[in-house]
Specification:
By secondary structure, the chain is mainly α. The protein folds into two domains: about 5-30 and about 180-245, Helix Hairpins, CATH 1.10.287; about 35-175, Helix Hairpins (Orthogonal Bundle), CATH 1.10.287.1700. Helix content is about 75%, strand content about 5%. Helix 1 runs antiparallel to helix 3 (about 95-175) and helix 2 (about 35-90) packs antiparallel against helix 3 (about 95-175). The longest helix is centred in the middle third of the chain and has 82 residues, at about 95-175.
Length: about 250
């Protein structure tokens, strides 16, 4: 059974379609705000930097412990050497063998101190490098956090503006939809869901305004002779075709 609707109601379908198309555009804008891509990128950078901070801080802590141990080892050996040197300088070592052993020990301790100081210096250099890297990563994190906050604020402002436009459009849609018979509105909404957001289009210069295909002569003749209150559809795409004053038929 073919739908029936007054020509004015059918024309209102075109107004409704224009509103719906605009609302669809607004939703796409909302989903594809340029800030969203940058926020995703910055969020990934923030996560990566956070992981690096944990890793580098662990390195700094480990190297700090190594340095404290190296410092303690050097001081311990130096203390022992000082004790031995005091004994040598005091002249209280009477046994030549003991004296020789003590002298050898001082030489060994000097060598051990040199080795430990080299290790201490190496650890210090590694610690300085790790601390410098930690400072750089922290600074980078601050920059990323700042830009992320800025982009988030910008997104929120843009989203609020779009939401306001959507609310206005939805209000206008409700008013326009109220002028369209329920059965015609139901058919339009179903076709819109099935046809990529376009449920009704104007018949323009023998073409469907929805799929842009030319109407074949037989179908066009049927549309021309159909009663004004009969709702016609494109045989190619199935969309409702509105015979508007600009149709040129």
């Amino acid at each position: 059974m073919k739908l029936k609707a007054e020509p004015t109601a059918q024309l209102r379908l075109l107004d409704l379609q224009a509103i719906d198309s605009h609302l669809d555009q607004l939703e796409r804008r909302r989903r594809n705000l340029p800030q969203l891509a940058r926020i995703a990128e910055l969020s990934a950078m923030k996560s990566e930097l956070a992981d690096r901070l944990v890793l580098i801080q662990t390195q700094v802590d480990d190297l700090s412990r190594e340095q404290r141990k190296a410092d303690a080892d050097v001081e311990q050996v130096k203390t022992r050497r000082s004790r031995d040197q005091v004994r040598l300088d005091s002249g209280q070592v009477g046994s030549p063998k003991e004296l020789e052993g003590l002298q050898h020990e001082v030489v060994s301790l000097n060598r051990r101190i040199s080795e430990l100081e080299d290790l201490e210096l190496e650890v210090m250099e590694q610690l300085e490098t790790a601390q410098a890297t930690l400072t750089e990563v922290r600074a980078a994190s601050v920059v990323v956090e700042s830009e992320l906050a800025t982009e988030t604020d910008s997104r929120d402002v843009a989203t609020a503006q779009i939401d306001a436009e959507i609310a206005e459009g939805q209000s206008e849609r409700a008013t326009t939809a109220g002028d369209i018979p329920a059965d015609l509105l139901k058919a339009y909404d179903k076709l819109r869901r099935q046809s990529g957001g376009v449920g009704a289009a104007a018949l323009q210069q023998k073409r469907c305004g929805g799929c842009s295909l030319e109407i074949n002569p037989a179908d066009l003749a049927s549309m021309i002779t159909a009663p004004a209150n009969e709702v016609v559809r494109c045989e190619e795409c199935g969309r409702i075709l509105v015979r508007a004053p600009v149709s040129g038929i």
